[in-house]
Specification:
CATH class: Alpha Beta
Shape: globular
Strand content: 15-25%
CATH topology: Rossmann fold
CATH architecture: 3-Layer(aba) Sandwich
Number of helices: 6
Order of helices and strands: EEEHEHHEHEHEEH
Number of domains: 1
Largest sheet: 6 strands, parallel
Strand order of the largest sheet: 5-4-1-6-7-8
Structural class: alpha/beta
Radius of gyration: 15 Å
Low-confidence stretches: none
Number of strands: 8
Length: about 180
C-alpha cells in the first residue's frame, strides 16, 4: 500500500483569491497564480516517496461559472510545475449534496481505490476546515496552515507554513518506520 499526501489546490498549490472575506477559486487561467514557494516543498515530499494527489472542490463547473476547458488549462499548469501524481475534482455545488465534495471524503476514497493508498498512514495538507474534516473521516492526518478558513473543528496539526508541514510529515514518517 502506498502513502499519499492529499493537497488542497486553492490556497496551497496556487495563491488564494479572496472576495468578501471568502477564498474563491480562479475562474480563468489569467486569475490563476502558482504558489512558487510550494514547488520545492512538494519536490522534497515527492523525493521522499509520497504519492502527491491534489484535491479540489470546483462548484463553478456545475454552476457554469467555470468551463471544463479553463479548468483543464489550470491543471495543465499545475502538472507542469508540481510533481503531482493526480488531480481529483469534485464538480458539484454544495446544494448537490454529493459524496465527493469536501468535507465529504469521496475524493480521498476514490484516490485510495485508484492508487492503492493506505489512508491511515496518509496526510492531507490544506488551509481549510473542510479538508481536515474529510481527513478525519477516513483516518488521514490533517496538516493545516494557519488561515482564516480553519474553522472550529478537529485539526491534527496547525503549523505556520508549508516548510513546517513538510518537516513534520517527514518526522512522523521516520518515526513510524522506526517503530
Amino acid at each position: 500500500m502506498k502513502i499519499a499526501i492529499f493537497i488542497e489546490r486553492d490556497g496551497i498549490l496556487n495563491l488564494p483569491r479572496v472576495e468578501r472575506q471568502h477564498q474563491v477559486p480562479p475562474r480563468t487561467l489569467n486569475e490563476f497564480q502558482v504558489n512558487e514557494q510550494a514547488i520545492p516543498v512538494f519536490e522534497q515530499l515527492k523525493s521522499a516517496g509520497f504519492l502527491l494527489i491534489a484535491t479540489t472542490n470546483q462548484p463553478g463547473l456545475s454552476l457554469e461559472t467555470l468551463t471544463r476547458r479553463e479548468l483543464d488549462h489550470i491543471h495543465e499548469q499545475l502538472k507542469k510545475r508540481f510533481p503531482l501524481d493526480d488531480i481529483l475534482v469534485c464538480p458539484h455545488a454544495q446544494a448537490d449534496d454529493c459524496p465527493c465534495r469536501k468535507p465529504a471524503p469521496g475524493l480521498f476514497t476514490e484516490a485510495a481505490f485508484k492508487w492503492h493508498v493506505d489512508l491511515d498512514r496518509s496526510f492531507v495538507i490544506s488551509d481549510k476546515w473542510q479538508d481536515a474534516t474529510a481527513a478525519r473521516s477516513v483516518g488521514c492526518t490533517s496538516m493545516l496552515i494557519r488561515s482564516p478558513w480553519l474553522g472550529p473543528g478537529h485539526h491534527d496539526f496547525v503549523l505556520s507554513g508549508l516548510d513546517a508541514i513538510a518537516e513534520k510529515i517527514l518526522h512522523l514518517q521516520t518515526s513510524h518506520l522506526a517503530a
